[in-house]
Amino acid sequence: MNKHKKIKELLLPYLEGKLGEGERKEVEEHLKVCEECKAEIKKYIELEEGLKMMKLKEPDERVWENYWTSVYNRLERKIGWILFSLGAIIVLFFGVYQFIDELLKDPKTPLILKIGIFSLSLGAVVLFVSILREQLFSGKRERYKEVEK
C-alpha cells in the first residue's frame, strides 16, 4: 500500500484522536504537503460541524398519548385474536375428527372418497391456521407514521 493511500485511511482516526504519537505525526507531516488530503480533512470537519447543528424534532405530547393508547389496544386485540383462534382451531379439529371418524366407520363409503374428504379437511385446517397466523403475527404495520421529515 502506498503512503498516500495509508494516510487517507488514517484521516478519520486522526480527527477522532485515535492515533498513536507516531502515526499522528506522520499524518501531520503529510498534510503539510498534500492538498488532496487537506481538502478531505476539511470536508470531514465541515460534515462534523453540520451534524452537530442537526437536532431531532421532539414529538408533541399528543403523539405520545396516542402511542401508549395504541400499544394497549393492539395488545388487547392480539390476546383476543389468539384466544379466539385457539378456540376456533380446537372446535374445527374436533369437528373434522368427528366427521372423519364417522366416515371411516361407514362401510358403504368408497375408499377413494374417504381419502379425498380426509385430504380436503386436513388441507382446509392447515390453510386456516396459516392464514390466521399470518394475520396475527406478520400483518402490515405502519410504525413510523407519526414521524415527520
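Above is the first protein from milestone M3; the second protein from the same milestone is given next.
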Amino acid sequence: MVDLLEYMPFANTLGLAIESATPEAIIGRIVVEEKICTTGKIMHGGAIMAFADTLGAMGAFLNLPEGAKATTTIESKTNFLGAAPKGATVVGTCTPVHVGRRTSVWQTRLVHTNAEGKEKAVALVTQTQMVLA
C-alpha cells in the first residue's frame, strides 16, 4: 500500500495515524494533544475538520479513475456532535457515499471512547472531492 501520509505533511502535524485504507473505507486515529486543542482542553473544530478532510482525500485518491493524478476538496460540511478532551483517542471512519468519474462524496464519522468506556460521537463530516486530471 502507498504511504498516503507521505504526501500529506499536515496530517503528521495533527498526529494522524492510519489504521487501514482501502477504496471502501479509511480508518484513522488521532490522540488529542494540547497542540490541537482550543479552550477547555478539547479538540479544536479546525483539527476535527482537517482530520476528516484528510481521510476523505485519501479515499478519493484510492478511487481515482485511470489517468487521473489527484483530488481536491470542493465542499465540506461538519456537524459537531460532542467534545473530544485532551488525551482522548478520536477514531475516524470514512466511507464513500458516491464515487463517480469527476467527483466523489465521502462521509466521516468521528468518535472517541469516554472514561466509562462508552463511545461518544464527536462529528459527522460530509465532503465532496473533485478529480484532477
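Note on the second protein: The longest helix spans residues 45-62.
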